[in-house]
Predict the structure.
Amino acid sequence: MHPLTPIVPPLAMLHCVSDSAGGSLANWYISRKAFLQLLDTLEEAQYQTTHFAELTEQKKSGGFSRKVILTFDDCAKHLLDFAVPELVKRKLKAAFFMPTAYIGGYNAWDVEKGAERMELMNEEDLKELVRLGMEVGSHSHHHVQLKNLSGTEKLRQEVRLSKELLQDITGRPVYSFAYPFGSVPDDYRTVLSSAGYHYGLSIYQPFETKLALRRFGVYEKDTPATLRKKLSGRYRWMRTLYDAVKKN
Ligand SMILES: [Zn+2]
């Protein structure tokens, strides 16, 4: 395979879709209007959504033209009020990443640093996502910086336990893992593959592999033009160069 051939479709990273401001977490919020703009842009450019479970089960490793994967980290409860119904209405799919220690709870990892409290999905919500054709993936157990746990048994537990819990709840295999804070441990390849993951999602990633994939963020300031640029192969190629010099 040519080194610049994409190993997955472009990956959009989202967290919260809400018209509340989000306080100190505002960077991770987009308004309902901005979310509709994203979905309209995808539809106008004739993009189809997929997710990692579908890629794995259909053994797809190419043919990603006009495909995109929408990813939501943290599984905020409010996504069920607007974002998820809007995806379902348009027959779109997405992948949702849950830190399993906080199922049915709140974003304790942010709150302990003084941020706003945000309710997270419970077991029934996660089952409902799967019933709607969405993917539920792991976002570790405790939502910690995994790079700091490189080479430790605790890292292996964070990765394994969350997978087992989600599989028990949803009755579906868990194929994908989103690193909290985009923090990729040094031994990510062995840790993720021995736990049975097929895909790992980071944010900035100079040397992209299936277990450390790069995502682009969707922000309030995005326009249809910036979104189309982020979806393009050329942007992805530029990120390969840019991320190599950016501090992780
Ligand atoms: Zn997160």
Remarks:
- Residues 206 and 244 are 4 Å apart (CA to CA).
- DSSP finds nine helices and ten strands in the chain.
